[in-house]
Amino acid sequence: MKYNEISHFSHPQHKLKFEYSEVPFKCDGCKEVGIGSHYKCSAFCDFDLHMQCALPSTTISHPFYTKCSFQFLSRPPGDVPRYCNACEKDVNGFVYHCNSCGFDLHPCCAKLPMVLNDGEVKLFLYRKVSAPCNRCGRKGRSWSYRSECKKYNLHVACVREMLVDNWQELYFGRGKGPAGKLETKIPSLKNTLQPLPHQKGKGKMKKGCEIAGLALQFVVSALLGDPTALIAGVVGSLMSR
């Protein structure tokens, strides 16, 4: 459900308005990067929230963890550093936490679509896959998106790493540039996708990387909180700059 204007406990002084932007932003809830549909302070404070962080569920379940009940928390529990079980990155803000198992999920990771489909490429989310990742060449690790043909795999963790590596100067050294604007650079695909062993020949290798590149656009857009064909196209255009 989408509301044009909401009140939120994390920013009680002003209303938040629904906004669509093709410029990346940093979510003040989970502290992760976002793009596309989100909520922004109506009084022009520098305050943004992913849709998933602005309108969270009190509790959720997930098909990968059938015995778990995840509770929404505004901060990580305890004093020990915690990481997201989907993307393996640190949890620094809003989180879904299972008290009995100790598992944690970023709000955007918790809501990652089980299937990404643009009509040409269909990707399925797996907790683990036995095939190597097209980005790092390794097996296992975090959750992965795998193509329907099972030739292309992308770890959620690898895509997160690409975002972190390219956006670590997000606020001047951690976020915003001199003009107070967020950098719009999304990871380039050049030299980031590894051809798998079965992709022999230049033609097949090129085609394989093109398909994996398109898959990467959709995974990036899903991780940023807006897994739509429109925003995936925006991500793709930014990647090619």
What does this structure look like?
- Helix 3 packs across helix 4.
- This protein has helices spanning 51-54, 107-110, 156-167, 202-223, 229-239, and strands spanning 5-6, 16-26, 33-41, 48-50, 59-62, 65-73, 95-98, 104-105, 115-117, 122-126, 144-147, 153-155.
- Mean pLDDT is 76; it is low at 168-196, 198-209 and 229-241.
- By secondary structure, the protein is an alpha+beta fold.
SSE layout and pairings?
Layout: E1 5-6, E2 16-26, E3 33-41, E4 48-50, H1 51-54, E5 59-62, E6 65-73, E7 95-98, E8 104-105, H2 107-110, E9 115-117, E10 122-126, E11 144-147, E12 153-155, H3 156-167, H4 202-223, H5 229-239
Antiparallel strand pairs: 1-2, 2-3, 3-4, 5-6, 6-7, 7-8, 9-10, 10-11, 11-12
Indicate the low-confidence ranges by residue numbers: 168-196, 198-209, 229-241
Helix percent band:
10-25%
Q: What is the number of strand segments? A: 12
State the major sheet: 4 strands, antiparallel
Our estimate of the beta-strand percent is 15-25%
**What's the overall geometry?**
globular
Distance N to C terminus? 34 Å
Number of helices: 5
Strand order of the largest sheet: 1-2-3-4
Radius of gyration computed on alpha carbons: 18 Å
Give the mean pLDDT: 76
Oligomer: single chain
Give the H and E element order: EEEEHEEEEHEEEEHHH
Structural class: alpha+beta
Quick rundown:
The chain is an alpha+beta fold. Helix content is 22%, strand content 24%. It is built from five helices and twelve strands.
Task: Based on the model shown, name its key terms.
22% helix; single chain; alpha+beta; disordered C terminus; four-stranded antiparallel beta sheet; 241 residues
